[in-house]
Amino acid sequence: MGTFEGRRVLLVGTGGIGAAVAGRLAGEGARVFGTYRSDHDGAAALGALLPAGSWAGSAPLDAADPQSAHDVAGPAGRAAAALGGLDTLVVTTGHRHPLALLTATAPDTLEDIVRTELLGPLLLVRAVLPGMLEAGFGRIVLVGSDSGKAGTLGDAASSSARAGLHGLVRAVARETARKDVTINVVSPGPTDTGLLEGMLAADGLTGKVMAGTVKAVPKGRAARPEEIAAAVAYLASTDAGFTTGQVLSVSGGLTM
Predict the structure, then answer these.
(1) What are the C-alpha distances in Å from 108 to residues 44, 147, 157?
(2) pTM of the entire structure?
(3) Helix (H), strand (E), coil (C) string for the chain
(4) What contacts 64, CB < 8 A, 6 or more positions away?
(5) How far is Cα 57 from Cα 254, in angstroms, rounded to an integer?
(6) How far apart, in Å, are the Cα atoms of 191 and each of 144, 160, 202, 208?
(7) For a surface tag, which of 50, 84, 128, 138 has the fewest beta carbons within 10 Å of its beta carbon?
(8) How many Cβ atoms are within 10 Å of 41's Cβ, its own excluded?
(9) In DSSP terms, which residues pair with 181 in a beta bridge?
(10) CA-CA distance, 248 to 238, in Å (whole number)?
(11) 121 contact partners, CB below 8 Å, separation of at least 6
């Protein structure tokens, strides 16, 4: 039997790191229900790649909308209905945007970034907690960014949101510590995904900052998505029952 045999996972975000997480958990026995903002075909394609019977379907989700978060992630939501319950939440989504100095970034863009990268995870955690606490078991893993520790030039809103995830998990960990419900953050450094590829190829500040960031990684390369998925898998496992409220950097030594 695999490490995640019988486990029921809601995966928010199915591209890049999310796809690697799905492959790792499903490969070890979990059933996975995925969500997407607009890319239905991408979610369906991921499901087709997973072991037979491990993909429970997918649904559109606007995580920053309380009703949408409740309808998908709540105890009676679409994910729990498809999976026959829900014991694991993994959130991998981020906001795609070019880097720009704070004074050059429109207020509505700042708001959209924070809604996606902080408010969305906050509402999803709120939605899944009642069912997990009632069952006496749950694992929540939020994939953030090391910008939440170190800050990124030209990315003030995202750095702020990612730092906010650290406060979220620490506060919620104190609320859930008496139950076998844990919540943690995995903070990757630069990771070899389509998003990083596009940023490296971009003109202006985006390309310069990301090239410099990758160059500064002591390991001398970007992470592979599977390496981030391995960290998520540990924190989502039953073995990690005494690890909660933590932020784990998987950055090749970029932040220590």
Answers:
(1) 31, 21, 11
(2) 0.95
(3) CCCCCCCEEEEECCCCHHHHHHHHHHHCCCEEEEEECCCHHHHHHHHHHCCCCCEEEEEECCCCCHHHHHHHHCCCCHHHHHHCCCCEEEECCCCCCCCCCHHHCCHHHHHHHHHHHHHHHHHHHHHHHHHHHHHCEEEEEEECCCHHHHCCCCCHHHHHHHHHHHHHHHHHHHHHCCCEEEEEEEEECCECCHHHHHHHHCCHHHHHHHHHHHHCCCCCCCECHHHHHHHHHHHHCHHHCCCCCCEEEECCCCCC
(4) 115, 116, 119, 120, 123
(5) 36
(6) 12, 20, 16, 16
(7) 84
(8) 9
(9) 138
(10) 17
(11) 63, 91, 142, 165, 168
**Residues 6 or more apart in contact with residue 175 via CB below 8 angstroms:** none
Counting every residue, how long is the chain?
Answer: 256
HSE of 34 in the Cβ direction (CA atoms, 13 Å)? 31
pLDDT (tens digit per residue) in 141-183: 999 999 998 899 999 999 999 999 999 999 999 999 999 999 9
For 32, the token pair is 């996975």
Tens of pLDDT, residues 193-216: 888 888 889 889 999 999 999 999
